[in-house]
Amino acid sequence: TQYKYHICCMGAGYVGGPTMAVIASNCPDIRVCVVDLSKRMIDAWNTDELPIYEPGLLEVVKSARGRNLFFSTDIDAEIQKADMVFISVNTPTKTTGIGAGRAANIKNCELCARKIAEVATGPKVVVEKSTVPVRTADAVRRVLMANDKGIDFQVLSNPEFLAEGTAIADLQKPGRVLIGGMQTDKGKAAIQQLVDVYAHWVPTERILTTSLWSSELSKLVANAFLAQRVSSINSISALCEATDADVHEVSRALSFDDRIGPKFLTASVGFGGSCFQKDVLNLVYICESLGLQEVADYWYQVIALNDYQKQRFTRNMLQRMFNTVTGKKIALLGFAFKKDTGDTRETPAVFVAKALLDEGAKLRVFDPQVSREQMLEEFDYTCGVNETTLPGLTTSDMILTMEDAYTACEGAHAIAVLTEWDAFKTLDYKRIYASMAKPAFVFDGRNVVDIAALRQIGFEVYSIGKPIQKNQFI
Ligand code: NAD
Ligand code: UDX
């Protein structure tokens, strides 16, 4: 088959996989190959059991796989073939060394640049898809240009704005595509090559071009603004609970103001996901490094408030349940960081679960997309909780993963709703109530349950930012 253009994407994760699948399905004239160091990931992408859960993804992958979409571990050969190479690798927060806990580690990006410089036999456009600290493109460019073959590379920044759970819809109809590049003739030509790819399906007025630095920074700022909205409404949820105001009514009142708008005003147990915390901390670190302490302090509050919100939720559970949960069974409904994904990175559920384990509770967890194995991995990764630090974690009945919500709730003293899966709205709560210890508590961290209906059944219900139930026995 004759392809007009060849794209290689390094990194077959939550971003690389879906993004390239959508490019391939919209551009039959372009050959797209996604490569990864992880054979496990690549093998899974080549089956119908994809390595990530995302609504609509399998259909898109199937529409192009084998036609012009390929997944491979042959990184060198695929780089050599490509006119354009995307770098879509993970850039996690550093855990040790300078900037530990804040700065993003761009080691993987640099390794990709080194790999490209090493194996390339001709000029290429290299596209930063990963979220990176502003000015990373400088480092990537210098590493590439240090090749001893005299090959010319152009570097572009093309941050990704998809959200998990809606990745396919976001990619098919993006609010905007942002492309940053050098403002030289060659730089502008490279920008045009990437514009031409997206123009296959994205209206050109939605394709924005900027300098490299504006593009890199805009991604961090976009996530900081979104996270800030969630922390803002979550701060108000605490005030609502203290005053009998209803956070839902407050959000609704705000949302009718065109200047504020309706989105990202849902109070919750706290935001999670691999991006918000990492990217806000990254922004904070950059500001600190540049001596902009006030700016750093301002954005740090978004994280501090999110930590407060997660702690507040568990403290409330404890306090309402007579200041002890020791030995009590607690059902956790949902473990993913939001609905319609199986991703557990930075999920608030892990913090709530850890706090309850510390209090001696017995957890019964149900999430339609999260396996027990992954849950335990997340405990270990996020809070260092594993069989060694907490004997019995995996072998006793400290945490059991259940097949469905009903078995999770059986005999439980309380239910904590931690992910807003639609299915949790329509459970048979009468049946659940009958099977629980009394008083039966519901702590809704996502405002999914019908408070009035549940109180009618007999539950004692506490939802984020909602007026507190007056205790009928006082
Ligand atoms: P991920 O961990 O799901 O996937 C990254 C993949 O890169 C892994 O499979 C890993 O094996 C591979 N990899 C690492 N180093 C490699 C190398 N040298 N060569 C080849 N493959 C390599 O990460 P992700 O969620 O896809 O995120 C990727 C980037 O996109 C991050 O910078 C992230 O901040 C950003 N981002 C993520 C989202 C999201 O919703 N997850 C949204 C927008 C932007
Ligand atoms: C986010 C950005 O939205 C996306 O543009 C970027 O590319 C990656 O980071 P993601 O983390 O996948 O996407 O999901 P998002 O929908 O933004 O939710 C993040 C967290 O905030 C979730 O835990 C979600 O439950 C929480 N959230 C979101 C709220 O608590 N309230 C809201 O109103 C919105």
UniProtKB/TrEMBL annotation:
Active site: 275
Record InterPro entries: 6-PGluconate_DH-like_C_sf (IPR008927), NAD(P)-bd_dom_sf (IPR036291), UDP-Glc/GDP-Man (IPR017476), UDP-Glc/GDP-Man_DH_C (IPR014027), UDP-Glc/GDP-Man_DH_C_sf (IPR036220), UDP-Glc/GDP-Man_DH_dimer (IPR014026), UDP-Glc/GDP-Man_DH_N (IPR001732), UDPglc_DH_euk (IPR028356)
Keyword Transmembrane helix: no
Metabolic or biological pathway: Nucleotide-sugar biosynthesis; UDP-alpha-D-glucuronate biosynthesis; UDP-alpha-D-glucuronate from UDP-alpha-D-glucose: step 1/1
GO BP: any one term: UDP-glucuronate biosynthetic process
Taxonomic placement: Eukaryota, Sar, Stramenopiles, Ochrophyta, PX clade
Transmembrane segments: none
Protein name: UDP-glucose 6-dehydrogenase
Source organism: Tribonema minus
UDP-glucose/GDP-mannose dehydrogenase C-terminal domain sequence ranges: 331-451
